[in-house]
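Last lecture ended with a question: if I hand you only a sequence, what can you say about the shape of the protein? Today we answer it with a concrete record. The protein is Phospholipase/carboxylesterase/thioesterase domain-containing protein. Below, first the input exactly as provided, then the predicted structure, then a couple of comments.
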Amino acid sequence: MLETVEHQTAANPAWSILWLHGLGADGNDFAPIVPELLRPGWPALRFVFPHAPVRPVTLNNGVPMRAWYDLKNLDLDQRADETGVRESMAQVEALIAREDERGVPPERLLLAGFSQGGAIALAAGVRRQRGLAGIIGLSTYLPMGSTTAAEATPTGLATPVFMAHGSHDPVVPEGFGARSRDHLKSLGMSVDWHSYPMPHSVCAEEIRDLADWMDQRFKAG
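The predicted structure:
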């Protein structure tokens, strides 16, 4: 089981948000976003921020760092190391199962991620046999796109998705996110897409739009 940083907004959480960080960061990276997202009237939430394993990253000269998978190629279709992606998806599944054991079923869990973490969130979410409340992919793309159609489940494809990207992103070009959005839509997914004039980061407008989307999920649940 991956080590995690956790924040509860109140006792006895009714919902969980499992949030995966980007390359080279750790579970503390997005913890400060919690108070910025919260709105009055929301149910009690548990935010779970896991630490990715440390592994060598080829495109970073083989330097070991926290990463959900190795990066071997800049091309979208070859960018993510499939073995690492599948290992991380399995680790995420274990965390989702732990939330279920703690009283929060997958139907009340949002799977979120930034950059590499968002790639894992998208890849895992579309393949789930038991549905999630939603998938959040920020400044990211869908890895293993060539196998997604064959491995996606009806339940996974029925999960609502929030995707956001910076139009000035030099790390993960917005075109990668847009192509992934279009691929998911072609499979029948509902994708709420947002673009912002920012680099590889998060902005206040994005947080506001995400909170709006999360509010809809809580009301629907």
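Comments.
1. The domain at 4-220 is CATH 3.40.50.1820 (Rossmann fold).
2. The radius of gyration is 16 Å.
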